[in-house]
């Protein structure tokens, strides 16, 4: 099962410090007991703790993206709106193993894609099929980039969270990865495209 999906920054922005990542979107799946093992917290304290734990994941992914880009030596090329497929093709990707207690109570895997200044992350349970998770992450990222125009100036990701929610409900229902045959995959693509065109 996928525990959460995140969209965050992976490059330093002028308003942020060097080690910070700005969270643009987060969605948790399933019960959050594995994430928030402290009992007896008020709802506000649970929300703050949840936010801090998600920020830990975003910082770890941000560090992994920076190391990957530095090791590759490739310059970061900014693409213009309309070249989302090219940006996704040149995206950096990888997996970060999250040890038990850092930040979740059990070990998890964080799959990430770094597309220019944006990071897309899926946090999965350790027994999850990582190839299937990677395909799902690439598909989610492609739809977000193409339909929400996230690479353009003044992108309103925060205002379009309902569209991301709808995308997740179709491609990652209740945090479950879907095995798709070709015909079902095409049907799902048409359904998503029709919804996003509204």
Show the helix and strand layout.
Layout (H helix, E strand, L loop, with lengths): L1 E8 L13 E6 L14 H30 L11 H6 L2 E7 L9 E8 L2 E7 L5 H19 L12 H11 L10 H15 L2
Antiparallel strand pairs: 1-2, 1-5, 3-4, 4-5
GO cellular component, one term: cytosol
InterPro entries: AP-5_subunit_s1
Protein name: Adaptor related protein complex 5 subunit sigma 1
Sheet of most strands: 5 strands, antiparallel
Q: Which range best describes the helical content: under 10%, 10-25%, 25-40%, 40-55%, 55-70% or over 70%? A: 40-55%
Number of beta strands = 5
Number of domains: 1
Strand order of the largest sheet: 2-1-5-4-3
**N- and C-termini, Cα separation:** 30 Å
> Quick check: average pLDDT?
82
What is the CATH architecture annotation?
Answer: 2-Layer Sandwich
**Could you say which overall geometry the principal axes of the C-alpha atoms support?**
globular
Q: Over the alpha carbons, how many angstroms does the gyration radius reach?
A: 17 Å
Secondary-structure content class = alpha+beta
